[in-house]
UniProtKB/TrEMBL annotation:
One of its GO terms (molecular function) is glutathione transferase activity. Residues 89-222 form the GST C-terminal domain. It comes from the Eukaryota. Gene3D superfamilies: 1.20.1050.10, Glutaredoxin (3.40.30.10). This is GST C-terminal domain-containing protein. CDD domains: GST_C_Omega_like. The lineage of its organism: Eukaryota, Sar, Stramenopiles, Ochrophyta, Bacillariophyta. GO terms for cellular component: cytoplasm. InterPro entries: Glutathione-S-Trfase_C-like, Glutathione-S-Trfase_C_sf, GST_Omega-like_C, GST_Omega/GSH.
Length: 241
């Protein structure tokens, strides 16, 4: 697994680059170069994450939900039962699929619909969706520890990045749900976030300051002055270590 760096200044044709300490196994300097190598003539957006078959030198998928499910399948076949976290258990498949649908529409995509609305009506509808999504999470998580019951599943993983970035970027910059809305307005949702944060390995994979400040660096139409606010920290959100 190779971690990309979000750096629009250094990247030749896009924001994602490979750092000197975490090089691309195929020798690319940025994500566009990797796409050019693996899919010559591709003219679409070069997005991450990207799952690549190094043996065949072909792109497997750049759809995060598909990649999560593929990696979960491989992961489940290689570790013993005591260490497993099954993200998509068969007995919860229907519930997970239904939950994923509204999490994406109301929150994952809802925050972006707020930020990139080009009319007041479009923004109002998107902002209402975000508030509906947050309230729905609050109601569910006031009755159970995770979105689909007693265990962490794919749905929780799908929600986690949006919630983590909410106070630092989506609320103040995208005006998602209204600039006054904060995670602490939803105590059950915040308690869920703390539970996720306390899981082994979770905080080690997240650079919250970079994940939020990159929006201010890159989205000129939304931040024309280019001022990057003091990066938010887990402690600013209220997460305890």
């Amino acid at each position: 697994m190779t971690q990309l760096v979000d750096d629009p200044v250094k990247a030749s044709r896009g924001g994602w680059i490979f750092s000197q300490t975490n090089r691309d196994p195929l020798g690319s300097t940025d994500l566009r170069e990797l796409y050019d190598k693996l899919s010559p003539g591709f003219t679409g957006r070069c997005t991450a994450p990207l799952l690549v078959d190094l043996k065949t030198r072909k792109i497997v998928s750049n759809e995060s939900s598909d990649i999560v499910r593929m990696l979960n399948s491989v992961h489940m076949g290689k570790i013993n039962s005591k260490e497993r976290i099954e993200l998509y258990p068969s007995e919860l498949a229907k519930t997970i699929d239904e939950t994923n649908a509204w999490v994406y529409e109301l929150l994952n995509n809802g925050v972006y619909r707020c930020g990139f609305s080009t009319s007041q009506g479009a923004y109002d509808r998107a902002s209402a969706d975000v508030r509906q999504g947050l309230q729905k999470c609050e109601e569910i998580l006031s009755k159970q520890p995770f979105l689909c019951g007693e265990r962490f599943t794919e749905s929780d993983l799908m929600l986690l990045p949006t919630v983590l970035r909410f106070d630092g970027a989506y609320s103040p910059l995208f005006k998602a749900g209204g600039v006054h809305v904060r995670l602490r307005d939803y105590p059950a949702l915040f308690a869920w976030l703390q539970r996720c944060w306390d899981m082994d390995g979770v905080r080690d994979t997240i650079d919250l300051a970079d994940a939020t400040s990159s929006y201010y660096r890159q989205l000129f139409p939304l931040n024309a002055g280019g001022i990057i606010p003091t990066p938010i920290t887990p402690e600013d959100i209220g997460l305890s270590s």
